[in-house]
């Protein structure tokens, strides 16, 4: 399976097995998605320690809530990413913030690898990071959501479509335009 491409049926099977008490399925599910969850959290909070804590909390919630997953009502990935987004919303509400900052990505040449972002310590890296972060702030809310779900969480278009209620074709076109906008801005 290619990086970034989810096999939703595989995830549904693992989730069903986990729901039935299969610990090995739970471990496999965790290992399949933990990096993407961490990257998604890191892009939202910007601090490794907080992202690690949130990731852990999300998987604890998964264990607690897996009994409510019903593949007849939708697939696991849509259900799970709603859980992730809700956990982040809860985190920001409990910390007294009204808005959730949008994703940050470090190197414009590695857009699709952002989920595996590692903080840079060199000055040039910090400058690049700030430039990109400032650019992201200029994107519309829809573009920010699409960037986050497609390039950070690496969700397939059909999942994004279900989550935000837009047509897959429209999302594909919007993602292509978004990539072009990023490339133009950073002259890639």
Index terms:
globular, 188 residues
Description:
Helix 1 (8-19) packs across helix 2 (23-45) and helix 7 (157-164) packs across helix 8 (168-186). The chain is mainly alpha-helical and 188 residues long. The chain contains 8 helices and no strands. The longest helix has 23 residues, at 23-45. The chain has a single domain (8-104, 112-186), classed as Rna Polymerase Sigma Factor, Chain: A (Orthogonal Bundle), CATH 1.10.1740.10.
Instruction: Please report the total strand number as a whole number.
Output: 0
Helix content: 55-70%
Outline type: globular
Q: CATH architecture, please?
A: Orthogonal Bundle
Which superfamily, in CATH terms, is the homologous superfamily?
A: RNA polymerase sigma factor, region 2, helix turn helix motif
Which H/E pattern describes the elements? HHHHHHHH
Give the tally of structural domains: 1
Most strands sheet = none
Give the averaged pLDDT, no decimals. 77
- What's the CATH class label? Mainly Alpha
The secondary-structure class comes to mainly alpha
**Assembly state here?**
single chain
Strand fraction: under 5%
Alpha plus pi helix count: 8
State the end-to-end distance: 28 Å
Question: Low-confidence stretches at least 5 residues in length (pLDDT < 50)?
Answer: 1-5, 100-121
Radius of gyration: 17 Å
- What is the name of the CATH topology? Rna Polymerase Sigma Factor, Chain: A
């Amino acid at each position: 399976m290619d990086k970034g491409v989810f096999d939703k049926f595989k995830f549904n099977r693992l989730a069903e097995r986990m729901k039935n008490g299969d610990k090995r399925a739970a471990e496999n599910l965790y290992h399949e998605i933990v990096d993407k969850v961490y990257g998604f959290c890191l892009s939202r909070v910007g601090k490794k320690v907080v992202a690690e804590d949130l990731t852990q909390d999300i998987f604890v919630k998964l264990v607690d809530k897996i009994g409510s997953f019903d593949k007849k009502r939708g697939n696991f990935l849509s259900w799970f990413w709603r859980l992730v987004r809700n956990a982040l919303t809860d985190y920001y509400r409990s910390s007294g913030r009204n808005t959730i900052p949008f994703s940050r990505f470090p190197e414009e040449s590695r857009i699709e690898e952002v989920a595996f972002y590692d903080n840079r310590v060199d000055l040039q890296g910090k400058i690049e990071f700030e430039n990109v972060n400032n650019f992201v702030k200029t994107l519309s809310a829809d573009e920010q959501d699409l960037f986050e779900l497609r390039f950070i969480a690496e969700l397939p278009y059909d999942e994004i479509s279900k989550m935000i209620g837009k047509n897959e074709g429209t999302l594909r076109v919007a993602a292509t335009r978004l990539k072009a906008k990023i490339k133009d801005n950073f002259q890639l």
